[in-house]
Input
Amino acid sequence: MKDDLTIEEAADFLNVSHSYVLDLLKRGALPARLVGSERRVRTEDLARYKERIDAERRKVLDELTAEAQELGLGY
Output
């Protein structure tokens, strides 16, 4: 995989929209750099972001599953 990805490639990698990636960049949740007039996202930064988000999602799902079991919802 390339070292730097375009916004479109980053969106494809995360399976999200182009505008969502732009929002991540604006919020500073994902770093980017300018190459000419276009922004590029380092593959390493993108992979790190995805790992962090996936871990957060797993944690929330585990908490929801535990709560559902405590309530006897059969999950």
